[in-house]
Structure formats: structure tokens, C-alpha cells
Amino acid sequence: MPADLPIELLVQGFSKTYGDFVAVRNISFEVRGGDVVALVGPNGAGKTTTLRAISGILSPSAGKIEIGGVPLTLNPVEAKMRMAYVPDDPKLFDAMTVWEHLAFIAAAYGVDDWKPRAEQLLELFELGPKKNALTMELSRGMRQKVAISCAYLHEPRLILLDEPMTGLDPPGIRTMKQSIRQCAERGQAVVLSSHLLSLVEDLCTRVIVMTKGTLRFDGTIGEARAKYATGSGEASLEEVFFSVTADAPASADAHEGPA
Amino acid sequence: MEGTSTSTGRTQRLLPRALAILILLRYRSVVRRLFHGNAKRKVFMIVGVVLMSLYLLPNLIRNRAGGPAIASSSVELWLPLGLLLLTLMQLAAKSTKPPVTFSPAELDLVVPGPFSRRQLLVYQLCYQTGPLILMGLWFAIFLRTGSPFLVRAIGCMLAGQCLWYINFFFVGIVTRFAIRPMQLAVFSVVMLMLLAAEFWRALPPLNFQDLSKAIGEIVPALQTPVFAVVTAPFTAFGKILASPSLGESLPWVGIAAATNLLLGACAVAIDRGEVEAITAQSQEVIRQKQAVRSGVLIKDTAAAARRSIPMTPHMKGAGVIAWRHLLEMYRLTGPILIGLIFITIVIISAGPILLLSTSPAIVPSLGAVCLLMIVVLTMIVGGDFRGDLDHLAFYRTLPISPVRMVIGQLMTPMLLVVGMLLCASLGVLIGLRSPLLWLASIGLVVALMPLIGCLLAIENTVFLFAPSRPLAQTAGTFDPARVGRHFLMSIAKFFFFGVAGVIVGLPAFAIYHFFKAPIAAGVVAYVISWAIFAGLIRACAKAFVHFDVVEDQPA
Predict the structure, then answer these.
(1) To probe the interface with A, which of B394, B542, B545, B552 has the most A CB atoms within 10 Å?
(2) Which of A48, A236, B232, B466 lies at a C-alpha separation of 20 to 30 Å from B501?
(3) Partner A, chain B 386-415, Cβ-Cβ below 8 Å
(4) What is the mean pLDDT of chain B?
(5) Torsion, Cα of B222, B228, B230, B231 (10° steps)
(6) Torsion angle, alpha carbons of B513, B519, B522, B524, to 10
(7) pLDDT band at residue B94, thresholds of 50, 70 and 90?
């Protein structure tokens, strides 16, 4: 973990409930610049709820969320300026072109001289030929690329990606992985949720395992492997996943704090 | 339901067990969906059910108490004629469109499943029985003939089923024999013309001075042998609804049911492309629903993409949101259509004004029409939260304060409504040829701007509090919760306007009454109106902040 870089995301005692149903229960973690953190867990673990709360879409039922030291609930505009969120199924404006989406984001985030950066992103994600096409004409993967380009445009300190590889073709996946690494190298913090454990293993510096709304493990991939090592040596991430998410009763000591 | 044998010797049911179970599960899901939802929806549901009960109860009581009913002879004459007319109109209007569609889930799970085409058709035919029974019961409450309620319900149900099966049958004919839609349309129009000619031929000279007598004289012209022949397939339905008891209706029920069964069997027997037609129709309906859901119905996307407008001033984010809506509006309509709309408004407003220009009531009438226009336009105009349901989650991630977000959302509809009213004011200039009155009408539009803003803010606040989708009602079920929502929201709006009216009116009236200063009273009222609008923007912003994209997002 790059301890010298500032904390870009602080989640403390976050819970989200719907009536009697607890979607996320009292989770805490922090993410520093340069970190690429994976949120993994089975379906319904609370990963998307957590990401949506961090991005400001859902209000927390309890707890504190800070983006770059700015409390999300007290100063949402300032906090949101520092981050970007790409949902698993991005809803673009159908009657706007790809370029207009970038113009919209640049205006919303107050990005000056955004055009060279936008051109660069279009080229990176092979969207150049579709620059002036309405997004309603684009395929699922291309729409995903537009959403990612919009997220990268204002160079946020924190990038939240919910299943970022969904719908992308192999070149798109490679570009996406490279771009995430570059973000980390530039000191940006990335939090992504994914079911692709190979991607997590390949890309992430840390992994947070959630199940049934609780945080069950938070540490580096190496720590996870060592902790859940089997008799034959270090555990694979898949083995870690199944060990952590095994149907054990959630308890206070089930939550492993950051190493 | 047993059917043919397959090559493996296994008897192939016309309606496999799996599809029969699916039909029952779908009925159950309809009921479950009605009662599913958060606390708000449950309240709307209760209010909706109470309102519908209050509406139906007097009719049910009147049904039990007896009373005036449509004469049996009239039912026997007009019902078969009506059914014939509906059949011909059905043919002329949508001859190749199947009466049913598969849902997206059915397209993915049932159509590719191990079912024959006939089984899929029978499945569709059987599934529709439930809605037809409900339709029969509904009509039986209001259609009061001399027959008992149950008989009326059966009759209405069978009549509806007959029309439905005829549609299905003609879809089969069209797909089997490659008949073009136009051919069927021409056939139905020719049939209608021939029937009109026969009616005209048999019509005696009428005395229009006594209208009821004249109507009575029409009847023999509809009872000629030609009409008897063409309405013969529908006679049984009229006879059912004219039967004084269940026992007497039974033979006709049998004939009607046999007619329907024959039609259904024919539709299934002649099937060639019905499943394909239903599938294609289903995909088209899904596409249209998605387009309406996103608010975007563009055919020529390349031409639309070429139309653009420059970015509006930032205004701490409000301008960006307004730009997105204005751009979408401009792109969806285009300059020609926008021009036509505004020219039409000028013409529509100038015409009546020109005709009534000498009337002393012209000025108050114009004021009333202006108010009515504002109320209607603010309810239907787009370009705000109401057309942006799917993007609310995205808006929440933007670094724009809720108040600025609301201002940005309200800007486009406000501009549209004001623009339309200003166009209508041009009608005043043309109609009354008075520049002074034209200037006065422009002044009126400016004076009414806070009202327009208040109405739009209320519409949006109400929407964010209890959102609904434009096509939700066409999902195939009637939802009393929508009735309840509409009622409660209307009450809330009226209550607000009562309170706002008092807040604006009282100080203005006091100034006018005690100081005899109409201008000061007007200025005070105007300032208070803007203050109320500002308050409503804050209320709408609060509704936006509290909108829960998980709990409040309707299907």
C-alpha cells in the first residue's frame, strides 16, 4: 500500500438499510492514491450498494464517507468533483453524441481545455470513428467505453468502477487494464468491483471481500494468499474467495482489518 | 388438452404442462405485482382501491336493485352490428399485426424453449382467457341489459374473445396466404361501403323533426336479409345479452363458445407465420417501449446528430443540465417541426381572437385561456426530471448542487412554455390588430412566469416523490395504485395552490383595500410569487436528494 500518498477515500462505519433489510452492515476501509482496490464477493454481497453510496447516488443509513478528506454528506459538490463513477450498466443520453457527452462532463466538472484530452481518450478507447454518432446507435461495449472516457476526462482523484470489463472486447479489456495501471501510477485511487478474479489478481494491489453486506477481508493479494494458504502452499485468489465467503455466521472477528 | 402424437410416439399436448403452469404463475405474478412495493405504493394502492370501489359500488347496487335496462330487441340488433363493424375496422386498421405480444422474458425463455409453434399459439390463446374474464366482468357492471349479471359477464367475455380470435385468425390468413395488408384493408373498406349502400337502399324517407321516431325508422333498414346474413356469426352474442335468465342463455352461450373455439382452432390450424409475426411484433413493441422510456424516438439518427446547439452558460452547473435538455428537445423535433409548432400556435390563437374581437368578453376570455394553457402545458411539456428517470442516478454523481440541478431541470420546460405563450400573444396582435394589447399580453406572460415556474416545480417535486413511467399502464395490467397516486397528487397540488393563493392574495388584497394602491399590490403579489417559486425549487431539490434510486425507481 502506498502509505506516503494521501487517503483519497475513507469509509467509516458505513451501513445501508432498506426497512428491515440490511444491504451493507457497518463496513470501514480506506483507499490511498495509487491503490487499485478490488471489491469482490458473491451476488448480493453489497458491493454495488457500497460503490453507489460512495459515488453519492445512495444516502448512507449510517457512517461517514470522505473523498480526499471532504465529507460526502456535508460537502457533496466538492467531494464529487474529486471522483468519477462508472456503473455496471451505464445509462447514457441517447440523443447526445459521444463528443457531446464529453462536452457535457467537461462543463459539469468545469474542465478547461478539455478537447485535447477528450481526443486522446477517444483514440485510446477506439471511439474516434463514433465521435459524432448518437450513443443510442452504439453497442453495449462502446457505451461502456464512452462512460469510462467520461469518467477519465476530469482526471479524478478517485475512480469507482462497477464491473468495468462487462461488454468490453479483448482489446477493450487490455486498454482498460492499462488505463487503470496508468491511473494508479499517476497517484489516482481506483476502486473496482469484479467477479473476474483473474483480473483482480492481475491488476489490484488490495482486495476487499464482502459477503451478505459485511466486510470479511481487507488486505493485499499476498496477505490473502498467505492467510488462507492450504497445505500445498499459498492459496489462489479463487480459493481465498471461497474460504472467505463460505457460509459462516457474520461476527465481529470475521472482519479482518487492513494489514 | 391432448393433441397429436410425435414421431417418438409420445403424445404431444396442445398445451404442455410447463406452459399451463407458466400461465398460472403469470396470473399470480400479476396479483403479486399489484401488492408489491414500498410504503408509498401501498398507500396509493389502498387509495386507488377505495376510489375504484366508490366508483363501482353505486353501479353494483343499481344492478342488484334492477331498474331501467337496454331493451332486448336493441341488444339483439346493435350488438352483432357493433361486433361486425369492429371486425371490419380491426381489419382495416391492423390487419397484419398480431393481437398479442411476447414479453421480453417470454422471448428469451419460452419462444426458444422445447415447444412447437402450435403450442405457443395455444399458450397465448389460453393466457388471454384471464384478462377476457376480467373484461367481461367489468363491462357487465356498466352494460345493463335485461339479463342477469353473470350472463352479461359471460356474453361480454365471449364477445371480446370472438373479436380477439378473429384478429388472430386473420393474422393466420395473412401470413399463410401471403396477403398484403392493403388487400385486407381494401376488402374491409369495400365491405363497409357495400353495407352502407344496402342500408341506404333500405332506408325509408325519414322525418328528422322527431328524432326518436327517426331512429326507430332506421331499424328496419338494418334488418334486411343482407344484414341478417353478415351479422349471423355474431347473433349468438346478442342473444346471450338479451336472455332473461342463465338457463335461457345456455344454448346461445354454447353456440358462441363453439364459434370462438372454431375460430381459435382455425387460427391454430392455418398457422404458418403467426409465431414469427408475434415475435417480430413483440420485438418492435419492446423497442418502442425502450425508446419512449428514454424519451428518444429518432428515426434518422445521422440527420439528428448533425443538429446541435452551443453550450449554455455554466451557472454553477444549472446551464449544463439545461443545455442537455435543450439539445435533446432540438434534436428530437428539429428546426422545421419547431417552426411549424410555433406557427400553428400563432394561427390557432389568432383565429378565435379574430372571430371574437368585437366581443366585450374578449380580454377576460384571453386571460382564462392563457391560464388554462399554462396548466395544461406545464403538465405535458418535457425536458425536466419527468423524462429523466433513468438518469437520476447519474445526476446524483455530478458535482452540481441539488438546487442548481433543479434550476437546470426547470429551465427548458419554462423556456418552452413561455415561448409558446409568446407565440400565442402574436395571435393577439394579429387577431386584435392592437400593439397595445399585444404588449399587454407579453406583460401578462412575464407576470405569469412565477406561476409557470411554481407549476413546473410542483409537477417535478410530485414526480420525484412518487415517480411513474409513461408506459407503465400498458404493461398488461390495470394498476389501481396509479389511480391512487394520481388522485393524491392532484389533491396535494390543489391544496398547495389554495395555500399559495392565500399567501399571495392576502397581502396584495390588504394593500389594495387599505391603501388603494393597485400597482403596489401587484408588485407585492409578484414578489411573493417569485419567493414561493424559490421555496418550491428548494422543496424540489430536497425531493431530488431524498429520491432513492433503489426504492423509488418504478419498473
Answers:
(1) B394
(2) B466
(3) 390-391, 393-394, 396-401
(4) 83
(5) 80
(6) -80
(7) low
